[in-house]
Amino acid sequence: MTEPTAPRQPVEWVGSDAVYADTYRHLLRVAFVLTGSTQTAEDVVHDVMCTVGPRMGSLDDPAVYLRVAVVNRCRSLHRRAIRAPAPEMSIDAQLDPGLTELRDELARLPLKQRSAIVLRYLCDQSDADIAAVLGCREATVRSLIHRGLKDLRRTLSKVTS
Amino acid sequence: MTSPLDATASSSSADLEAVLRTQLHRLADHAPTNVRAFDEIVAGPVVRRRRDRRRVAGVGGTIAILAAAFGVTTLAVSSTDDGGAATPEEAVIRLVDAVESEDVLSVLDIVDPAEVGALRAALVQAESDAKRLELVDESFRLDGIAGIDIQADGLQYATNDLMSDLATVTATAGTLTTTVDPAAFPFGDVLHESADDGASTSTVDMAGDGSGWATLATVRRDGRWYVSVSFTIAERARRDAEVDLPSAAGIAPEGFTSPEDAATALFDRLLAGNLAGAIATAAPGEGDALAWYASLWLPSAQPVLDEQLAAGWSLTLHDLTFEVSGEGDRRMLRPSTYVISGTVPAGWDLVDGRRLDPTIDTIVWTSDGTGYVTIPAGEPIPATLEGLPVQQFGDEPPVELQTAFEQPDGSIEPHLFTDDADDQPFEIRVERRDGCTTFDAGANRVFILGSLDSAEAIRPDGSFGTADDEPASADGSTRTCGSTSLLGLIWLAGGGEANLPAVATVQVDGQWYVSPLGTAAAALTELLHDVQSSDDLFDSPIAWLIYGTSRADLENLLVGSPTAQVPADCAELVVAEGVTITAIIPTPTVSQARACYGALTSGEWTTYHFEGSESGSSEDPAIDSVPATSVEVTPATLDSVPPTVTG
């Protein structure tokens, strides 16, 4: 159910169009890997931009802030899906068999583990940065990644072999 | 950046991480690439999701009704003039109807206005902390808890007028059906992975098994009837005690000029053994039940306290300061600094188990936990167990026994027989400062702080170390800074720490009073409030509520054991050095912890572990040095504390 309200005042992106496009695509990549769905990834990034966009000028580092917002948005969707399982999330991307297996294995990880894995190995974030995003200790991040890697080991071993 | 696989694994770990990095980027390459223009996004209409209305909920029976009823107070602005009901029965009917029909304002209107504020403050605090700790997610709302439904069928009521403004209403027939659907409950990240999938329904027959909870007390305020929590509790206690209603007038409330003065008066009067004075600090209205029903139990309780005071109890409170929170007419005061000093009569150090009854046998447990030595009644406790016959588990111990413990160095924990004890009162001093509580040697004779893992002893140089590292302090003082549930219980649930409990206060007609319901609720909500983050839950006093166990439990059972003996369900939880378990991982999941504890307390593991320890057949020497706590497998959390004197 939606409730439209009045249009917002335009706000300018602080930076070049190229940077904006790169940032947007990076957010799409993060959201896609976290959710496994192109449609959901687009919705997530769009929602985040709608929410954060008007405040963009007041942010010190919009790209980082947006990434945190995307991860949190994915976690929020995940919780909602757990509480009220609705129609299955569309698996709308055609992937190679190896990637399909990786995507499915990622989807089986608890979302906090999955987020830690994605932030570390897709976004090259440090333990401290990941801890800040996930709201936990750095030691917890290491534990999350350790457990996530352990679960993914079988799939990754197939790739290496 | 250090590889997280470095600690455990194989030479191909770095390769696997590299592969994962590559594969994740390959996967991300399939992400959509359609970039929407920034102007288009921020200038477009805002599409805001409207929250779906959730079904109202409760937990079960009267508790469920009350929980839902109080829950809605979090959203309420105030009680309306036409709140309440014309009769006691109508008040209860409206309460039940309101829960069933999700009519939150009606539920609010039917609870005693004097109690709503205290309950609202506690629930707001608990809800906030539960979300912060990820026990429930952000969609959780006290005015509509998804996943739980209540339905009342055929309820019939009987009203009993106790006083002109007090009546009880009892459900004499009908059923209350509660359906719980964990899949729909908004569990937070900590709990949702462990939630059961299936919904369950339970029905309480008000004329049968539910009859004990079927009576609610109602009070009349300004001509309208309301359901009262405090009178319901008091009436339940009175009926269980089978005593008549109080005939005397209640204790008159005494107001103070500030919240701090009210809370300080409460502590001062409790320490002085002045129960009536402590009750007088309770707010009028909210404390009416406490003040009035006090005449039923004070005449028997006060003489017991007076007797102890005459025997030598004399404690005073100094330098009390608070951390104050809240606004409007309510404040929560958490003691931040204070000194309690005075004398305690002889005999109160019995709790540390150092006195033994010479007329019964004494069991001395060996330090490795594999057996015990029986010291017959009347014989002195020896210096060591050397040369004495050690009995193994499986032998039938004497029914009437008391226990002592052999220390790792071979000595036996010093014990005194009753006749040897010093019968003089002794001085104690407890000081709270900088978030830590220091107990001097005298206080340690009363409190069993020294046996707690988090206790720290003062070293000769004045620094502090953990009790395990430095058990013998220069002057016998110890302090604790972390959560110590056992001591928290001793301090009447003082926030789970070795601290005085938080006190809720309320302003009525310009005077400040203690809020009894708010303070009682705080004893529970502070347990949540004191946990810093969800990562600390496993180390907190409420761990057993969530995990069914705790870090201390699992460490007692596992640390020091050989990895070869670890049940499969615990394999992911333990940290090992070589072949010996040294710790539990920082943040196990609830499922992991429950499964591990279940495996450890199952008969299979216990038998296996005993056999492994006793056979001595392992080539690994660590197997033969399993500590006592790894063998004493007990099902309850607090049972991990070694057995104390019985008989």
Largest sheet of chain B: 9 strands, antiparallel
For the sheet with most strands of chain A, the description reads: none
Per DSSP E runs of 2 or more residues, the count of β-strands of chain A stands at 1
Q: Which of globular, elongated, flat, extended, rod-shaped describes the shape of chain B?
A: globular
Oligomer: heterodimer
Enumerate the spans of chain A where pLDDT stays under 50 for 5 or more consecutive residues: 1-10, 82-91
Arithmetic mean of pLDDT of chain A: 73
Radius of gyration of chain A: 17 Å
Discrete helix count of chain A: 7
Instruction: Determine the strand fraction of chain A and express it as a percent band.
Output: under 5%
**Which chains have the largest interface?**
A-B, 75 and 60 residues
Helix content of chain B: 25-40%
Record field, number of beta strands of chain B: 23
Using only C-alpha atoms, the radius of gyration of chain B works out to 29 Å
Cα(first) to Cα(last) distance of chain B is: 59 Å
- Number of DSSP helical runs of chain B: 19
User: What form of chain A results from the Cα inertia axes?
Assistant: globular
